[in-house]
Amino acid sequence: MGGSSTAENGLTPARTRVSVIADELRRGIEQGDFAPGDRLPSESELTRRHSVSRTVVREAFARLRSEGLIETRKGSGVYALDPAKAGRQPFSDLDTERLSGVIELFELRSAFEIRAAALAAMRRSGAQIDRIVKANEDVAKCFDRGESTREADFAFHYAIAEASQNKRFPEFLSLIRPGLVPRVELEAGSGTPRAYVPNPDLVTEHDRIIDAIIAGDADAAEAAMKAHLEGSLERYRDLLRGARE
Question: Where is this region: Disordered (predicted)?
Answer without folding.
Answer: 29-48
